[in-house]
């Protein structure tokens, strides 16, 4: 049995597993406690799919016979949404790559009680070793401080009864399983790259039982007690909290490397954040490389590390030949002190999987003197059209901006774009008050091209639309210096082919007798006309001109019009 806020953030429910021999299936029921006079009674939890529906009991049922589904359970909020997920072990399940009794961990996402058995809200991690019984014991605790609990899952019979404990990264489980939109969310234990495996040959059936122990040393994360009944021992595992380490490369001075240059400089910066905001002390190694090692240094980071630590890397170049270089930097934690120490230090920390440990940039060396400046040009092209477009002929109009570079590599170029005459439907650039800002690739190399595509919404044009105008400013150095201005106009043409006029005559025959009869002073005749718009163009501010030939026998006439239920009467 395990307790959690599975379907209501304010209500605690109890999940109880059982085996239904009648229907040959494993079942998990959800119960809630209710006080009645001095007693506490347990009731089966029920829900309504909608207000007028009957209540139905919430339960999980699995027909995987012999899997020992429900032998271990745990509740933890794995996605930080306030609802508990239900973690269920099936240590004898045999559908993983490990075969017989390789085991599995099932995760049922909390939230909507009516969807508890929905396949898209069910995640499975399968064991990999035959007979290991992965999923025999389960626990959870956030040990790295990212608000996504790590999952501890044991396989106590792995390696012929020696046993092993697996620590699954909450960050990875959340990203690889819970947030995935695919309908079937199943993954092998071996596919999780941030998993830590713990084993000790002096312990037998290691991981048979697990218990989270509240933080004993004040370093911000809980410890874990691991039972090993095969040797009558308990191992206390003390946790190492995580630090997020990000490395970045900054350009210094002239961004262009010329063929006559002897060297260039780049700045390597390291930023460290302790997720638990505790005191810590760790050594990390930072390397900067090109075609050979350029810089290697160790950096001690601790609880007082606030600002990024930066080092200038001066790269000396051999010869003056043109070349393409890749400059990159990499971080590794020096774990020697942790591995070799016999005493635990609560200030130790490990690197979070959220860290950015590698960065690289391309460096082009293909120019001399004035040739080192980029030479950018911009062309505007209306795809599939010349210089005109007929309103209503399509729902979208596509315009392309093609940027070409015939000079040296550009590292900071951009285009500012303004569009008038039609709403923008799709555009991959940043919108601001003055229109859109499009950054070029870094670098935009010599002889390279970059195309910017804009899709315009033409599904609701009007007869007042005359043209679409695109204005662009091309900057060699974004928002600095002079810009090259380019504009293009697409004329819009209007057709009346979709305006249909239908006439209806009342077929009244006027005889000579009626005309000659002096008693008949007036003869009435009526005609009706229907004007319809069968196209997509919205016609605004238009008028209809009705002309009647002047004849001596027409004494008077009356015109009545209806526009959108508005009646107009003219004499």
From TrEMBL:
GO terms for biological process: cell-substrate adhesion; heterophilic cell-cell adhesion via plasma membrane cell adhesion molecules; integrin-mediated signaling pathway. The keyword Membrane applies. It comes from the Eukaryota. One of its GO terms (cellular component) is membrane. Pfam families: FG-GAP. The keyword Signal applies. It is found in: Membrane. InterPro entries: FG-GAP, Int_alpha_beta-p, Integrin_alpha, Integrin_alpha_N, Integrin_dom_sf. Its main location: membrane. FG-GAP repeats lie at residues 55-117, 120-177, 193-254. It is a single-pass type I membrane protein. Keywords: Cell adhesion, Glycoprotein, Integrin, Membrane, Receptor, Repeat, Signal. Belongs to the integrin alpha chain family. PANTHER family: INTEGRIN ALPHA, INTEGRIN ALPHA-PS3-RELATED. This is Integrin alpha-2 domain-containing protein. The lineage of its organism: Eukaryota, Metazoa, Ecdysozoa, Arthropoda, Hexapoda.
